[in-house]
Every structure is written in structure tokens, then in C-alpha cells.
Amino acid sequence: MATQLTGVSETLLIPLATRIMLTQLGDPIVHDPQAEKIIEKLQLDVSRFISPPKGISERLHIHGVAVRFRFFDQVVTRFLEKHPDGTVINLGSGLCTRFGRLDNGRCHWFEVDMPEVIALRRKAVSETDRHLFIPGSVLETDWITKIPVSHEQHYLIICEGLLMYFSRDEVNRLFSVIAENFPHAELATDIIGRVFVKHSRRHPHLPKTQARLDWAIDHPDELKQFGIPLTISEHFSMLDRQKERLGWLNILRAIPLFGKLYQFVDFRFDTYPNGHEGTSMHPGK
Question: Which GO terms describe its molecular function (predicted)?
């Protein structure tokens, strides 16, 4: 019997399908054979999310998935090179295969997602003492209590294809609790611009799901409006990477609006100023 997903959970199939397509085409950047094995094992139907790169929307989508794949892989690789025993927390992990590709044999890795998604993951991938799955909403408090917290440990938080489905207030609260409970944690995420939300019906696959986009910003500096101390270490538009893949679409780089469509940012939470209480997710605080 084929597995069915709905709502935001269903959107995990979109990048999964594109990674599989690019892997099968021998793409020089995206190589994810484990993704193919997962959909076969789970009997996931991703055919409706696979389309040839004919139109501009399709080509931009494929380009975005490839840039996203490389960005998060590079962030994790750098983090583990600097902190081999560090902890990676993958929020809204979907059926991400990154641990299997980048595990250094020493890190600890937590996959956090809705119960139905974690149930799928457990059917396809085995947990280990260093690779653990936590069912629950990222916006609730339970997941954070299941991760050992030490101010001496190094943490990398991944929010891949996640925050754009939350409201601004939800993103604000999530960042606040992460900043307090994981001081100096690094967080890597992708962000969409307001024009992306406005024209989301033109996306080749998103309208096929029941999910709706919400939070959008046009520049990572807007993150500072949350009032949470942070330092941005890397930021770029998807059009700034893998330009050879774009071909004639590189002309879009001259139009500022297109540069805001889909961006990537890597930043570090700084220590709260004296007197800032924050909001703890730990019970009893």
C-alpha cells in the first residue's frame, strides 16, 4: 500500500523527487542514491513532483534544489570539521539523507519532525545511539527536552525548507527558545522573499499540495528585527551559485527582485545581553 502524506508534511516529497531525478540524470552536484532507496522501500509516489526543466519556473526550482543541497552539505561539513563531536539538530527533517552521507563517526544527530514523518523515517532508516529521531511539532516544547543540553557543547541547527510555512511570530518564538537553550548555536536556513509568496501559485509543484507559504523576508538583516542577538556569517541568493547551471537565465541576476526569491543564510546566536530573560522551553523554567 502506498504511503500518503498531507499538508506541510507532503512538501517533503518535492525536493526528494527532484533529488532523485537529478541523481538519475547523473547531476554533478546532486547525488543522493539513498533517496531512491527510501521511496522504493516506503512505496512513495513522487511522480507528480517530477517534471522536465522546460519552463522558467521548473528550471529555477531545480536550480534552487541543487543550490540548497550543496549549501546545507557544506555547512554541515564545515561544522563537523571544526567540531567533530558536535551535535546537529535537523528541524523539520523530512526524509533528509544527510546523516548517511556526511556522518564522521563521532557527531550526534537528531531528526525532528511530525509523528507521521518520523514514523515513515523509522520504516526506512534505523536509529542508532548517535542518530536519533524525535517525533513532534517543531513549534511545541517536547523536542528540546529530549536533546542533552550543555553550554560547553557545539550545536548546529538546520531549518531546511521549514520556516516559510510558519508565521512571523512562530519563527520569532522558535528562534528565541533556540537562542536561550542552545547559546552560541549555529543555525542554517533557507528563506523566501515576499515576491515568492505573492507568486507561489507559479511554483511548478507547491500548488499540488495543501501547504501554504507564510513567513518571508527580503534580506537576512530583517532577522535582527526579532531583537535576538545574532551574527550572520554567510548569505547569498540562489542565483549567486552554480551559475553555469542557469545558462541564459543568468540574465535574471541583473534584476534585484529575482535575487530575493530564494536565499540562504548561516548565522550564530550570540549571548543574551545581561537582563534579557528570553523564553525557555524547559519545564520548570
Answer: methyltransferase activity
Domain that holds residue 249: 55-269
Residue 46 lies in a domain: no
HSE-up of residue 5 (Cα within 13 Å, Cβ side)? 27
Neighbouring residues of 259: CB distance < 8 A, sequence distance ≥ 6: 237, 239, 240, 253
| pLDDT confidence of residue 204 | 78
Q: In this structure, what C-alpha cell is assigned to residue 247?
A: 545558462
In a domain, 36, yes or no: no
Burial tier of 69 (Cβ tally within 10 Å: 0-12, 13-18, 19+): buried
Q: Are 142 and 112 in contact (CB under 8 A)?
A: no
Average pLDDT over residues 210-235: 95
Inter-residue contact 192 to 260 (CB < 8 Å): no
Residues 6+ positions from 130 with CB-CB distance below 8 Å: 103, 106, 107, 108, 109
Q: Which three cell numbers, joined as nine digits, stand for 178?
A: 533556540
Question: Stretch 209-221: mean pLDDT, rounded?
Answer: 93
Q: Which three cell numbers stand for residue 137?
A: 511539532
Q: What is the pLDDT of residue 1?
A: 46
Number of domains in the chain: 1
83-86: Cβ within 8 A, 24+ apart: 83/154, 85/154, 86/153, 86/154, 86/155, 86/156
**Which pTM does this prediction carry?**
0.91
Q: Is residue 247 part of a domain?
A: yes
Smallest CA-to-CA distance from 116 within 173, 42, 20 is with: 42
